[in-house]
Amino acid sequence: MAAIELEGLTKDYGEGVANDGVTFDVERGEIFGYLGPNGAGKTTTIRTVLGFISPTAGSARLLGRDVTDEEQLLEAKRRIGYLPDSPAFDETATGQEILDLHGSIKGDERSAELLELFDPPLDREIRAYSRGNVQKLGLVTTFMHDPELVILDEPTSGLDPLLQQRFTEFLRAERERGLTVFFSSHILSEVRKLCDRVGIIRNGRLVTVEPVESLLDRSGKLVRLHAAESIPVQSLEIDGVHDLETDSESASSGGTEHVFTFTGDVNALLEVLRSYQLLDLSIEEAPLEDVFMRFYGGDGAADGSDGGDRVAAGATATDDGGDDDV
Ligand SMILES: Nc1ncnc2c1ncn2[C@@H]1O[C@H](COP(=O)(O)OP(=O)(O)OP(=O)(O)O)[C@@H](O)[C@H]1O
């Protein structure tokens, strides 16, 4: 039995369908990333899975329990940890009081260890907490009862890079212990680092579910080539060349630089390149950002304002019919 089972999950808020027939399983022991830009429908799926909102159609099972049955839901919830996108703790309570409350409800197996790792200021009232401190406290309350499944809604938002790294290492170690993780994100590098499988949601519909590796394979290679002379664009019009950029200025030792994503046959590409004098050639794995661009399409789908890792709010699908569309 999978940890989370979704079958045709649909949520219509009345103003639009936020989840439209979403079907996938999260297997036990895996880290499953749920990826999509703001407004894609990630939180709606999570809130439905946790029984906070009821589906318009379809079903959701959590650790084998039907989430629309209150008793079954409660049973499942005792064994899970949940970190919402903006944890809403009682503003007048101190961090310590919040921990005591959580401990009395769900149990406390490991808060000491977690406090050492994430270190929120426990003697302070929540209203004096920064966003990052709320997130740190949220991580402690999510894991302190040693759950078998955690559901995390954009878990690293508000954490500084050092803590993000610490969190990544922590999650990897937890997976080794058998924990199942379902987390939503619009931070692509995080998904790439952590996930076994990834589901991509766009406008409420699931676009794909696949191992992160095969997603990268399908996304092709990033090719940079530096030629002594400019390679005519027509020569590079071969199957699998996308987003070709040519720059004669920036190449420091003269010549021309061409950069493109390549999803075709590398041998066919090398055959074409044999006719030119190459000064340098590199073929690397395409950044996940490029993969995402292919799924979402359109200019400005990645805003680049945060190291190029984030996907801008309101990125829309163009469905250009290209061979990478799913
Ligand atoms: N309570 C609600 N009532 C009406 N519409 C809602 C409600 N909650 C969400 N929506 C809409 O449903 C769609 C999906 O929202 P959702 O919060 O699930 O997306 P998300 O992928 O989690 O986005 P984010 O990354 O910003 O949290 C959006 O268009 C949103 O405006």
UniProtKB/TrEMBL annotation:
<dbReference type="Pfam" id="PF00005">
    <property type="entry name" value="ABC_tran"/>
</dbReference>
<dbReference type="GO" id="GO:0005524">
    <property type="term" value="F:ATP binding"/>
</dbReference>
<feature type="domain" description="ABC transporter">
    <location>
        <begin position="4"/>
        <end position="228"/>
    </location>
</feature>
<feature type="compositionally biased region" description="Low complexity">
    <location>
        <begin position="310"/>
        <end position="319"/>
    </location>
</feature>
<keyword id="KW-0813">Transport</keyword>
<keyword id="KW-0067">ATP-binding</keyword>
<comment type="similarity">
    <text>Belongs to the ABC transporter superfamily.</text>
</comment>
<dbReference type="InterPro" id="IPR027417">
    <property type="entry name" value="P-loop_NTPase"/>
</dbReference>
<dbReference type="InterPro" id="IPR003593">
    <property type="entry name" value="AAA+_ATPase"/>
</dbReference>
<feature type="region of interest" description="Disordered">
    <location>
        <begin position="301"/>
        <end position="326"/>
    </location>
</feature>
<dbReference type="GO" id="GO:0016887">
    <property type="term" value="F:ATP hydrolysis activity"/>
</dbReference>
<protein>
    <submittedName>
        <fullName>ABC transporter-related protein</fullName>
    </submittedName>
</protein>
<dbReference type="InterPro" id="IPR050763">
    <property type="entry name" value="ABC_transporter_ATP-binding"/>
</dbReference>
<keyword id="KW-0547">Nucleotide-binding</keyword>
<dbReference type="InterPro" id="IPR003439">
    <property type="entry name" value="ABC_transporter-like_ATP-bd"/>
</dbReference>
